[in-house]
């Protein structure tokens, strides 16, 4: 069995759409150091990275064991087929919405698959996300229902606590298509993150012959970053999210107005440089200071969050109370900087000593409030 501290760096090097010579040299070295390839497909699946891993290993001319190559090739073909089905369905949805006068922006994976990945099938997807105006969100959901989706209407008035309506689902060619109709990019979003404010910078692209639009480069980069953070406390960070952000920044380095990009996103890219090396062009254009965060990244346990509420107290019992408190209140520097968008220096210490502990106490309050509410019901 391959040690995770050997396997994770190999996977992380492939968390990008565009490869380069320095990356491939490191990839060859990591591949030679593997004691076993048996866990590679399983870990690649967990990170949504099978097509990218297979493509980069081939480009780096790494000798892949036949049984592993077959598994990766099969998964790549399966994702390519699944994405064709999903994107065809998305094209039909966009065409229907456009005919009804509903302006729509395509979000996340479906847009990135066309804009930054050499082949749309390389971007592993689970669902489709679209953004419409808040007044038209219910109409869009109703139109999905007419198209054969199980699309439950929102039970109450749309609020800032819910950025999208209930997931709409339909079986197409033997697979489930899931669609989320968003009326804001973020939970507790602002008018600046609603459709009307984002349309002027929208970028056009084609899906199955239908003209689609997505967020402007700067808005997209920050959205990809913030989407990653929504899950960063409760689930492990998946490398496909890193690939999205790195690939977008690399592909459109010259087009992005870096002065308009929130510093937190640039700080995140500096951290990703330790996982998969960024190009000199990107480092220079974005004025990225890669620094040297303490803590290893050979094993994801060395840089990811491992405390509460990621795992329940019962699941962490073997650590003892001291271990639980340490992992909860003193996370690795890499994760702390990523989650709070921090650089180094005083901001980092403020984040560690004040901001993160207060954040944890806020979660404790939310948990207790929810528990009290359940007990009263």
Task: Please render the helix and strand layout as text.
Blueprint: H1 4-13, H2 21-33, H3 40-46, H4 50-59, H5 66-99, E1 105-107, H6 108-115, E2 128-131, H7 134-146, E3 168-172, E4 175-182, H8 195-198, E5 203-207, E6 210-214, H9 217-232, H10 239-251, H11 263-272, H12 280-285, H13 320-329, H14 333-340, H15 346-376
Helix pairs in contact: 1-2, 4-5, 9-10, 11-14, 14-15
Fold and architecture overview:
With 377 residues, this protein is α+β, with helices and mostly antiparallel strands. It has a domain of 116 residues. It contains 15 helices and 6 strands. The strands form 2 sheets. Strands 1-2-4-3 form a 4-stranded mixed beta sheet. Strands 5-6 form a two-stranded antiparallel ribbon. Helix 11 packs antiparallel against helix 14. The protein is globular, with a radius of gyration of 21 Å. The termini are far apart.
How does the overall form come out from the CA principal axes? globular
How are the strands of the largest sheet arranged? 1-2-4-3
Order of helices and strands: HHHHHEHEHEEHEEHHHHHHH
What is the first-to-last residue Cα distance? Answer: 49 Å
Low-confidence stretches: 372-377
Structural class: alpha+beta
Per DSSP, what share of the residues sits in E-state strands of 2 or more residues?
A: 5-15%
Radius of gyration: 21 Å
- Total number of strands: 6
- What about the largest sheet? 4 strands, mixed
User: What is the helix tally?
Assistant: 15
Mean pLDDT: 90
The percent range for helix content is 40-55%
């Amino acid at each position: 069995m391959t040690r995770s501290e050997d396997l994770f760096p190999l996977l992380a090097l492939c968390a990008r759409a565009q490869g380069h010579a320095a990356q491939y040299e490191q990839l060859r070295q990591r591949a030679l150091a593997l004691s076993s390839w048996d866990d590679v497909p399983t870990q690649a699946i967990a990170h949504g990275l099978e097509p990218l891993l297979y493509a980069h290993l081939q480009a780096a001319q790494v000798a892949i064991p036949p049984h592993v190559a077959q598994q990766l090739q099969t998964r790549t073909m399966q994702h390519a087929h699944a994405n064709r089905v999903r994107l065809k369905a998305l094209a039909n949805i966009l065409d229907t919405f456009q005919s009804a006068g509903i302006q729509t922006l395509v979000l996340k994976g479906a847009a990135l698959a066309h804009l930054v990945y050499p082949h749309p099938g390389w971007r592993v997807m689970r669902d489709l996300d679209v953004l419409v105006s808040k007044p038209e969100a219910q109409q869009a959901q109703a139109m999905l229902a007419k198209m054969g989706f199980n699309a439950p209407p929102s039970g109450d008035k749309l609020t800032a606590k819910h950025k999208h309506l209930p997931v709409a689902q339909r079986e197409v060619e033997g697979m489930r298509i899931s669609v989320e109709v968003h009326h804001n990019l973020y939970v507790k979003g602002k008018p600046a993150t609603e459709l009307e404010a984002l349309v002027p910078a929208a970028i056009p692209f084609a899906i199955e012959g239908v003209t689609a639009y997505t967020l402007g480069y700067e808005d997209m980069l920050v959205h990809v970053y913030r989407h990653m953070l929504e899950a960063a406390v409760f689930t492990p960070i998946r490398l496909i999210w890193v690939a999205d952000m790195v690939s977008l920044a690399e592909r459109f380095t010259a087009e992005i107005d870096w002065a308009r990009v929130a510093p937190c996103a640039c700080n995140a890219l500096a951290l990703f440089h330790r996982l998969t090396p960024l190009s000199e062009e990107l480092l220079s254009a974005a004025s990225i200071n890669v620094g040297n965060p303490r803590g290893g990244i050979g094993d994801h346990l060395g840089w990811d969050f491992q405390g509460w509420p990621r795992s329940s107290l019962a699941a962490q019992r073997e650590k003892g109370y001291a271990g639980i408190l340490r992992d909860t209140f003193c996370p690795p520097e890499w994760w702390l900087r990523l989650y709070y968008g921090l650089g180094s220096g005083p901001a980092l210490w403020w984040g560690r000593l004040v901001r993160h502990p207060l954040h944890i106490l806020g979660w404790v309050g939310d948990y207790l409030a929810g528990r009290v509410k359940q007990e009263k019901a």
